[in-house]
Write a structure and sequence with these properties.
- The protein is an alpha/beta fold.
- It folds into two domains: 31-39 and 292-379, Alpha-Beta Complex (Aspartate Aminotransferase, domain 1), CATH 3.90.1150; 46-287, 3-Layer(aba) Sandwich (Aspartate Aminotransferase, domain 2), CATH 3.40.640.10.
- The chain is 38% helix and 15% strand.
- 42% of the residues are buried.
- Bound molecules: pyridoxal-5'-phosphate.
- Pyridoxal-5'-phosphate (PLP) binds next to α3.
Length: 380
């Protein structure tokens, strides 16, 4: 293969260097977004000289061969095990992120129950109302409890009114603001009590999907617990320099939508045509280098750092709280200056910090020192 050098002028190179310096500083400092920072993908340098494209179904063989489908399949099998998918009865692919996985889960649900109603809570990620709009699905928003979890009473009452239509439950396994987890066991008990035989459950586990399997008690959210499909973001707890995600579903749901495409000699089972060939390699490197034990350790380290920060904030008299098993700490919003400096996601008077891998204790302590100093100034 020949390569064409792509040289930049001195000005353009300077602009790029300044951008990198600033982006590195901001990436080092942020505390309010769920993207893990412990990235090391030198290995992938070599892949950037290839037009990798994972077009088509990762489990089928197509005419195009410059793909990383075999790595993608290993990544999917790993997560199928972690999320207790039924042996030989699951399917999935590496997506562009949590939103695409959620769109996919809702799409499968709609093909199964074309007149179904989607139920999701007020705390559901902002992309979901867009997704149900894309898919033209009937939907009802359910109240949330104070901690961000769905209000089961409200859900029960609403389901009762629409018992003739199959419910499609869009469950949050870690809400965006407070990392609250809806209990899908409890929701299924509700279905039994209401004698609703046909329903679909999608778990939106964007952040917590890589954490929840290691929690004790393990929250009910995966296939063994009754989910029909699950979406996880790859660039959140796992960490990836390129946004990506994993979607897994019960295979029977996917078989309903598969169409064979002559042009690529493959099945059209994914949302987009061309798909990222690098991200499966990134995820593969992550799971291979860490293994199950390494992933568990990352969870334990994040929980330990979260407990440390919570303890420090509480001793400083700050009204901090978190959901069980969460690495997200919720507290009253500080000044706009601190919100900007530490990139704290904020909404309706509350802010959060998310103690993802790659954040170190010094940084956390520095932020808390600044927050405490500011609070002390306000109080005098
Ligand atoms: C981040 C997030 C999403 C969207 O994931 P992307 O990877 O950003 O597309 C969906 N749901 C929840 C709960 C999230 O936190």
């Amino acid at each position: 293969m020949t390569t064409t050098p792509q040289l930049l002028s001195a000005d353009d190179q300077l602009r790029l260097d300044q951008f990198l310096d600033q982006a590195r500083a901001e990436a080092h400092r942020y505390l309010g977004y769920p993207a893990a920072k412990d990235l090391d993908y030198q290995l992938l340098q070599a892949c950037l000289g290839l037009p990798l494209n994972n077009i088509g179904d990762p489990f089928a063989v197509g005419t195009w061969k410059v793909d990383s489908h075999s790595f993608e399949r290993e990544v999917l099998a790993f997560f199928a095990g972690l999320l207790r998918a039924p042996a030989d009865a699951w399917w999935g692919y590496v997506t562009n992120g949590g939103t695409e996985g959620n769109l996919y889960g809702l799409y499968l649900a709609r093909e199964l129950y074309p007149n179904g109603i989607v139920y999701f809570s007020q705390d559901t990620h902002y992309s979901v109302s867009k997704n149900v709009h894309f898919l033209n699905m009937r939907h009802i928003m359910i109240r949330s409890q104070g901690n961000g979890e769905i209000d089961y009473e409200d859900l029960n009452e609403t389901l009762k009114i629409h018992r003739d239509v199959p419910p499609i439950i869009f469950a949050n396994i870690g809400t965006t603001m407070t990392e609250a987890k809806d209990d899908i066991s409890r929701i299924q008990t509700m279905m039994k009590q209401l004698a609703i035989p046909n329903y679909y459950i999608h778990s939106d586990a964007a952040l917590a999907g890589a954490i929840a399997p290691f929690l004790d008690p393990r929250p009910p959210f995966d296939f063994a617990d009754g989910a029909d499909s699950i979406s996880i973001s790859g660039h959140k707890f796992l960490g990836s320099p390129i946004p990506c995600g994993i979607v897994l579903a019960r295979k029977a749901h996917v078989d309903r939508i598969a169409r064979s495409i002559a042009y690529i000699g493959n099945l059209d089972t994914t949302v987009t045509g061309s798909r990222n060939g690098l991200t499966p390699l990134i995820l593969w490197q992550k799971i291979k280098s860490l293994g199950i034990d390494g992933l568990r350790q990352r969870v334990e380290q994040s929980l330990a750092l979260t407990a440390h920060a919570e303890q420090r904030l509480r001793s400083a008299g700050i009204a901090v709280w978190r959901n069980p098993g969460a690495i997200t700490l919720v507290f009253p919003s500080p000044s706009q200056a601190l919100i900007e400096r530490w990139q704290l996601a904020s909404s309706q008077g509350i802010s959060h910090m998310i103690l993802v891998p790659g954040i170190d204790m010094d940084q956390v302590d520095q932020f808390i020192d600044e927050l405490v100093a500011e609070t002390a100034k306000e109080n005098c």
